[in-house]
Amino acid sequence: MRQSPTERRTGHRSTFAVLALGVAAFAFLQSLVNPVLPTVQAELGSSQTDVTWVLTANFIAASVFTPILGRLGDMTGKKRMFVVGLGTMALGCLLSAVATDLSVMIIGRVVQGVGGGVLPLAFGIIRDEFPQREVPGAVGAIAGLTALGGGVGLILAGPIVDAFGYHWLFWVPLIVTVLSALAAQFLLPESRALSAGSINWISAALLSGWLVGLLLAVSQAPTWGWSSPSVLALLAAAVVLAVVWVVAESRAEHPLIDMTMMRIRAVWATNLVTLALGAAVYSALGFLPQLLQASPSDGHGLGASVTESGLMMLPQTVAVFVLGLVAGRMALRFGSRNLVVVGSLVSAVGFLLVVVAHDSEWAIYLITAVNGAGFGLAFSAVANLIVAAVPAHQTGVASGINANVRTIGGAVGAALMASIVSGAATTGGPPGGSGYATGFLVLTGVLVLSALAALLIPEVRRDSRIHNGPDVEMRHPEVALVPGGTLVESESGSPPGGRQNEP
């Protein structure tokens, strides 16, 4: 590990404000387009199948570039790559804002996807710059902000399009993103500790190949059919490339993603939980507003407008943000693993309520509040678990992979939900209410599995510290940072060779 040049450090509260603005801008942009996709389709004169590429291209690009930006941040400086991510996202917003045909719009959305790296980079900067005791709260708050930005996007999408037109779905994020990039450039401190090595571009190409194959297959499966030759070929290619990628990474001198790190129980178990949580939350964001907007004459739905359905989702947004703010302090008292278990089960109750009580507005407000409380606890705790499980110089890439896993889970969950809902549709008619009920019942089961998977995560140890620099906490009984920053695993929970202080 090498040290970056010494520079004047910005106060961590100012640092948090800049990071929060950048992450909120990305989350805001991600959710703005979803509820008004039919409007974009009509304005650009495209088909329903083609316009879905506005969403698909974006999350594929985000999945590919998130771990790469995380690794580059660990190597060359997290501030530098945070600014690059925001600047690229702003360029993508500009392309989409001036687009007059679907192809330019999709190119803009691909470029915007590079900004997905700002979330893991933000976690890494927090770990580098914040006092250790404040890291869990700050990470939880940033995780909560992703939901806040996403919820605000759902609420404002309709009014923005009605008042100014769909182009302003990109002009508004462009303005916010440019301001965020300027603030980051002048206010954020650069990383002091940088990891050695270089980007393994062969590994990056293999990672990109299997991610594109997998996400493209699951996102298009509801349209092409799960048993179609195209979907099966893409899935097969994804499996083959993933296997080759793992072998290549295991043998690389400077791997893009350290396979030793991925074998740490705290890392793979947390990623397993994230996969299930991603499937649940992305499906809810996509299909609960759709259910609310359905006409009551179809036998389900409330006939809400885009704006009204967004307002009904507001309690979820507020609850996720509020619980994200307090989750760090709760984790110190109850343990992050326990918060994941409780949060998953609380959201499972919310999804079960969707099945039995989605025919009145007051019930929807209650349901979205319950969902938000559960997701706020779970996602904030997951972010802290990943940050705590790896050495500081691997925070960016570990958080990037975790964000990727969430995206993959979201793609699989959304595709599964789409297949269930559309499969229940009557010929030539809208999706049947039984399809929504079945889909949310399946998602309830997914959240129960998330709670069970969380039990595999090692307990957080909150009563001991080790000498690994100032104010560094020993977090997991199976994962210890010994002097020099080496990551080791211990069956007993004692850090091998490390000296402990009493708290």
UniProtKB/TrEMBL annotation:
Pfam families: MFS_1. It comes from the Bacteria. Gene3D superfamilies: MFS general substrate transporter like domains. It is found in: Cell membrane. One of its GO terms (cellular component) is plasma membrane. Residues 483-503 are annotated as: Disordered. Residues 15-462 form the Major facilitator superfamily (MFS) profile domain. GO terms for molecular function: transmembrane transporter activity. The chain crosses the membrane at residues 51-69, 81-100, 106-126, 138-160, 166-187, 199-218, 230-248, 268-292, 312-332, 339-357, 363-391, 403-424, 436-457. Keywords: Cell membrane, Membrane, Transmembrane, Transmembrane helix, Transport. InterPro entries: MFS (IPR011701), MFS_dom (IPR020846), MFS_trans_sf (IPR036259). It is a multi-pass membrane protein. This is Drug resistance transporter, EmrB/QacA subfamily. It comes from Geodermatophilus amargosae.
